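request received
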Amino acid sequence: MKDMVCIVCPVGCRISVDEENDYSVIGNKCPKGATYGKKELTFPTRTITSTVKIKNAIHNRLPIKTSTEIPKNMIFDIMRELNKLEVSSPIKVGDVVLKNILNTGADIIATRDM
Ligand code: SF4
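response:
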């Protein structure tokens, strides 16, 4: 059994996942917790929210996020790529500032106008 906290919603249920019983989950108050618990032990993923450098704008960092979840074990590689990235104003919320980062299938999306 693996104990963890479900991070899908603010309730934060304490769940237990049984790896030896098809990743069955107990302690979840809704079905999303069962899906999360199984996925967390078999193929954990995360959405990255961060900032990248921007030129000619009112601030020097642009808030961004990944368009889809990326494998959790690639977070540090992706953060290194984001540290190298520099975009130029004007940028609109929803603009793709980098496509298919590290072949994950996830684009990097601006989360505000700047
Ligand atoms: S199991 Fe359901 S209610 Fe509990 S934290 Fe996860 S999503 Fe929220």
